[in-house]
Write a structure and sequence with these properties.
Layout (H helix, E strand, L loop, with lengths): L15 H4 L7 H10 L20 H6 L8 H17 L10 H14 L5 H15 L9 H17 L2 H13 L2 H9 L9 H18 L7 H15 L8 H13 L8 H16 L2 H14 L9 H7 L9 H12 L30 H9 L24 H4 L14 H15 L16 H12 L5 H14 L1 H4 L8 H9 L3 H15 L25 H36 L1 H13 L2 H9 L3 H5 L12 H4 L7 H6 L7 H18 L3 H9 L2 H8 L5 H14 L5 H6 L1 H10 L21 H20 L14 H5 L7 H5 L1 H10 L13
Helix pairs in contact: 4-6, 5-6, 6-10, 7-10, 8-10, 10-13, 11-13, 12-13, 12-24, 13-25, 14-25, 19-20, 24-25, 25-26, 25-31, 26-37, 27-31, 31-34, 33-34, 34-36
C-alpha cells in the first residue's frame, strides 16, 4: 500500500498549541480578547441546527457554482436564446407545449453528436441553461426551482444523461487536454470549461431527481426509481457511475489530470452515492428490515429521533471564569456560588448528585474544575458572577433524571467475561462460553446475569461474523452463499481492486482542503476550478476571491466527509468485513491524525465562518438585480448564526472517527498517543447536542487510559458522558479498570483483522477459490479421451520432440517385471 504518498500531519506538533505555557492575561488583555474573538463558554449560543442528509435544495444547488463562474450564467442564456430563436421565433420556452419542448430537446440531443468541439460546447451550455430553470423567463427564485425541476425530468426522459456520460468519458480520455494542463504553470477556470458544463448538468439532474416532493407527477416517481436503478447498476462499461467518478478523483490526485474540477466531481460523487444507496433515514429502515430477516429483536430506540431530541450542554468553565473566582477567594470573599453558570453540563441539576450534602460547592469549584481549564481558553469575557440559585431541599437534590436518553446494551462477550470472573472466584474453574449454567454461583450473581441478559444486544455485524466463520469451516456442506446484488454490493465489488487508491486520494483532497493545512509546493492544487484567468487587481476583487477560495475548500470538506461516512455506514450494514477493509485503509492512510489535525483549530471560528456572499448565490444572482458590492458588505457577511456546511462537516468527521475506533483497542490507543483529549474538549464549546454527543463518545472510550488525575480534573465532562452517552452495564470506563488491559500491539490486532478480511474476499469474490475442492476424474479412459489443445509452435516441432523425448530415450522394459 502506498501509504507514503499520504501527507501526514506531524504527530509531535499536532498538539503543540496546547503545550505552550503562556502567562496569564491581565484584565485589559481579557477585554482585548473579548473584542477580538468572543469565544467563551459563557457566550457560546445554542445552535438551532438540524442534522440531515443534505442542506436545503437552494443551498445545495448554489454550492456547485463558484462565484468566479458568475459570468457564465449569462453565457448559457445567450447560447440558448441564439439557438432557440431560430427554432421558435418570437416565443418563450415556458409557453411551449410539452410536445414542442420534447421536440426541441431532441434537436439539442442530435446537435450534441457533432464533431466540432466548440459547437458541442454551445449545445451543452444551452442544455445547462434549461437545467438551471430558464431563469431569464422567471420572476422569483421559486419559479426558477420549479422550471428547473420540470426541465430536468424532461431532459432525463429524452436520454440527455446518457449522452452527457459519453461526452464526459471522452473528456476524461482527452490526453491532449491532460498533457497541456500538466505543462501549464498555473491552471484556471478556462482549462476545465467543457468538464465543468457537463458535470454541472449531471449534478443538477441527480440532485433534482433525487429529491421527492409532494406535488410530484406519477411519471416523475417512476423516472426517479428508474434513474436510481440505472445509476447503481453496472451499466456504464460494466461498472456503476460512481466508479467512473472515483477514477476521476484518483487521476486528479496522481497529477495526471490537474485540470479536473474536483469540487464538482466530489459533489456529484457524494450525491450519486446518496441517491443510489440511500440516506440516514433509509439506512435506519434497512437496519430494521435486516434485523427482522435475522430474527433479531427490534432496536431499543430510533437513534435519529433520540439525537434530535437531545439538548445541548454548556462547555466546561473557561480559564478567566476560574481565575476570577480564585481572586475572590483570596480576597476573603469565598462564596457558596458555583463556579460555572447553572445550565452547565448537568442537564437535570445544578448540584452534583453524587456529592455529600455537607460538602462545600466552592471546594468542588477550587479542586475539581480548576484543572479542567483548557490551556487555549484565553478568549473569554469577564462578567459578574450569576446570583446564587435557591438551594433545593435535600430530598430533591439527589434525584436522578427522569430517564437517560439511551437504553443500556450488553454484548454476549461481556456476559461471558462476567461469568468467567464469577466462576473463578466462587467455584475455581470456568465453563468457556456457557452463559446458561449458573450452578454453584450465589443468588446476587444470578440476578446480575438476569439483568445483563435483559439488556443483551446482538448486532447484525455479530451475526455476519458468525455466519462467515461457519462458511469458512464448512465450504462443501453449506455451499455457496446467495449474495443479493444491491447497489452497495455492486459498488464494493467495483471499488475492491483499487480501494486503497480511492481512500488515499480522498484523504489527500481532505488534507489539502483542511483549514489547518499549510500550502506546500508539492501538494495537489484543488483550486483549478475556482481561480479566474486574470487575477484580481482591486481590493474588492481580492476579498471576493478570498471568500470564494475559502468557500470552495469548505464545500470539498463537506462532500468528502459526507461521502466517507455514507460509505462506511452502508458497507457496515451490507457486510461487516466490507466496512472493516475500508476502515483499515483509512487508518493505514493516517485518517485518525488527519481528523485530529482538522479539529486542532479555533473550532467556533470555523463553524461561524461567513464565507458566503448571498447576493451571488444561485438562483438569487440570476433573478434579482445585483446590488453594488463593497468591502464592508463582504466583510460583514450574512446574518446566520453558524455555517451549516461547516457544522455538518465537523459532525461527519467526528462520526467517522467514532466508527474507526469503536471496539478497536489499538486505534483507541492512537487517540491517546496523539493527545486527542484536549483537542476534543475544545470541540465541546460548540453548543450543538449531536456534535457534543460524538465528542463525548470519543472521550469516553479513552477515559480509562488518561489517568486518575485527568478524570478528577474533568468531572463536568465525566458527568456529561454519563448523561449523554449510552451505558454498557459492566463497562469500567470511569474507573480505569481496563478489562482488555494488554500491551498495545497494533500490528497483531490489525493483522488478525486483515486475515479475516482477506479470507472473506477470497471466499466471496475469488472465482477460482474452490479449485482445491473440485472433483477429480479418476477414470483412465476418460482422461485419455480428453481433447488437449496444443500450441501452434508445438505442431511445427512435433517430430523433433518425439525424437528427443521418446525415440532417443532407452526404455527398460524389464523394470516392469521387478518387484518393488
Amino acid at each position: 500500500m502506498q501509504t507514503d504518498e499520504m501527507e501526514v500531519p506531524i504527530i509531535n506538533n499536532i498538539n503543540s498549541n496546547c503545550n505552550k505555557q503562556r502567562p496569564l492575561p491581565n484584565g485589559r488583555d481579557v477585554f482585548k480578547n473579548q473584542l477580538k474573538d468572543g469565544e467563551s463558554s459563557m457566550e457560546s449560543p445554542n445552535l438551532e441546527f438540524e442534522y440531515g442528509d443534505t442542506d436545503g435544495l437552494t443551498a445545495e444547488l448554489s454550492e456547485i457554482y463558484s462565484y468566479t463562474e458568475e459570468p457564465e450564467f449569462a453565457l448559457n442564456r445567450d447560447y440558448f436564446l441564439e439557438d432557440f430563436r431560430s427554432h421558435a421565433q418570437g416565443r418563450r420556452w415556458i409557453t411551449l407545449s410539452l410536445a414542442e419542448q420534447r421536440a426541441y430537446v431532441m434537436r439539442l440531443l442530435d446537435a450534441l453528436e457533432v464533431t466540432d468541439r466548440d459547437k458541442r460546447l454551445k449545445v451543452a451550455r444551452a442544455i445547462l441553461y434549461l437545467a438551471q430553470g430558464v431563469f431569464a423567463e422567471c420572476d422569483s427564485d421559486t419559479d426558477v426551482i420549479r422550471w428547473s425541476r420540470h426541465n430536468v425530468f424532461l431532459l432525463y426522459d429524452m436520454g440527455i444523461f446518457t449522452a452527457l456520460l459519453e461526452l464526459l468519458s471522452m473528456e476524461m480520455d482527452n490526453n491532449q487536454a491532460c498533457s497541456s494542463a500538466v505543462r501549464k504553470p498555473a491552471i484556471s477556470l478556462a482549462d476545465s470549461t467543457e468538464l465543468r458544463v457537463l458535470l454541472s448538468v449531471m449534478y443538477l439532474m441527480v440532485e433534482t431527481i433525487r429529491l421527492q416532493t409532494e406535488d410530484d407527477q406519477p411519471d416523475w416517481t417512476t423516472a426517479r426509481e428508474a434513474f436510481r436503478t440505472e445509476l447503481g447498476s453496472p451499466l456504464y462499461n460494466g461498472e456503476p457511475f460512481a466508479l467512473l467518478l472515483f477514477t476521476m478523483v484518483t487521476k486528479f490526485c496522481s497529477m495526471n489530470a490537474p485540470h479536473f474540477p474536483m469540487k464538482k466531481v466530489l459533489l456529484l460523487l457524494w450525491k450519486t452515492v446518496l441517491f443510489t444507496m440511500g440516506g440516514f433515514e433509509e439506512l435506519q429502515e434497512m437496519k430494521v428490515r435486516g434485523r427482522e430477516r435475522l430474527s433479531l429483536p427490534p432496536l431499543p430506540e430510533d437513534s435519529i429521533k433520540v439525537v434530535r431530541s437531545m439538548r445541548a450542554a454548556s462547555p466546561p468553565a473557561s480559564a478567566m471564569e476560574l481565575i476570577e473566582q480564585q481572586q475572590q477567594a483570596k480576597r476573603g470573599r469565598r462564596s457558596r456560588r458555583p463556579l460555572v453558570k447553572q445550565d452547565s453540563l448537568d442537564t437535570y441539576n445544578e448540584r452534583d448528585p453524587f456529592k455529600n450534602d455537607d460538602e462545600d460547592d466552592s471546594e468542588d469549584a477550587d479542586g475539581n474544575l480548576e484543572s479542567e481549564v483548557d490551556p487555549l481558553d484565553r478568549d473569554v469575557i469577564i462578567q459578574p458572577p450569576p446570583p446564587p440559585p435557591p438551594l433545593r431541599p435535600p430530598t430533591d437534590r439527589a434525584s436522578l433524571p427522569k430517564g437517560l436518553p439511551w437504553a443500556p446494551k450488553v454484548r454476549e462477550k461481556d456476559i461471558e467475561h462476567f461469568l468467567e470472573i464469577s466462576r473463578n472466584k466462587f467455584i475455581g474453574f470456568t465453563l468457556g462460553s456457557d452463559t446458561e449454567t449458573l450452578v454453584g454461583l450465589p443468588r446476587p450473581i444470578h440476578e446480575s446475569v438476569k439483568t445483563l441478559k435483559q439488556h443483551k444486544y446482538v448486532s447484525i455485524a455479530e451475526m455476519q461474523i458468525k455466519k462467515e466463520e461457519e462458511l469458512q469451516q464448512c465450504p462443501m456442506t453449506l455451499g455457496e452463499e446467495d449474495v443479493e446484488e444491491t447497489p452497495t454490493e455492486v459498488l464494493y465489488l467495483g471499488m475492491l481492486p483499487n480501494l486503497s487508491q480511492y481512500v488515499i486520494a480522498l484523504l489527500k483532497l481532505l488534507l489539502a482542503a483542511a483549514p489547518t493545512s499549510k500550502a506546500k509546493t508539492d501538494s495537489i492544487n484543488i483550486l483549478a476550478d475556482v481561480l479566474p484567468e486574470e487575477m484580481p487587481i482591486t481590493v474588492l476583487q481580492s476579498m471576493k476571491l478570498g471568500i470564494d477560495v475559502n468557500r470552495h475548500k469548505e464545500i470539498i470538506v463537506k462532500a468528502i466527509s459526507a461521502l466517507l461516512l455514507l460509505l462506511l455506514k452502508h458497507f457496515k450494514l451490507n457486510h461487516i468485513y466490507q466496512f472493516e477493509i475500508v476502515s483499515q485503509h483509512l487508518v493505514f492512510a493516517n485518517c485518525i491524525p488527519l481528523i485530529l489535525k482538522f479539529f486542532n483549530q479555533n473550532i467556533m471560528s470555523y463553524i461561524s465562518a461567513k464565507n458566503s456572499i448571498c447576493v451571488l448565490d444561485f438562483p438569487h444572482c440570476v433573478v434579482h438585480e445585483m446590488p453594488e458590492l463593497t468591502a464592508e458588505s463582504l466583510e460583514a457577511g450574512d446574518s446566520n448564526q453558524f455555517c451549516w456546511r461547516n457544522l455538518f462537516s465537523c459532525i461527519n468527521l467526528l462520526r467517522i472517527l467514532n466508527k474507526l475506533t469503536k471496539w478497536k483497542h489499538s486505534r483507541t490507543m492512537m487517540l491517546v498517543v496523539f493527545k486527542s483529549a484536549p483537542i476534543l474538549k475544545r470541540a465541546l464549546k460548540v453548543k450543538q447536542a449531536m456534535m457534543q454527543l460524538y465528542v463525548l463518545k470519543l472521550l469516553k472510550i479513552q477515559t480509562k487510559y488518561l489517568g486518575r488525575q485527568w478524570r478528577k480534573s474533568n468531572m463536568k465532562t465525566m458527568s456529561a458522558i454519563y448523561q449523554k452517552v449510552r451505558h454498557r452495564l459492566n463497562d469500567d470506563w470511569a474507573y480505569g479498570n481496563d478489562i482488555d488491559a494488554r500491551p498495545w500491539d497494533f500490528q497483531a490486532e490489525e493483522c488478525a483483522l486483515r486475515e479475516s478480511i482477506e479470507k472473506f474476499n477470497s471466499r466471496r469474490y475469488d472465482k477460482n477459490q474452490n479449485g482445491e475442492f473440485a472433483p477429480v476424474d479418476n477414470c483412465l479412459q476418460s482422461v485419455l479421451g480428453q481433447r488437449v489443445e496444443l500450441p501452434d509452435d508445438f505442431q511445427y516441432s512435433y517430430e523433433m520432440w518425439l525424437e528427443r523425448e521418446v525415440f532417443s530415450q532407452p526404455i527398460q522394459w524389464e523394470g516392469l517385471l521387478e518387484r518393488n
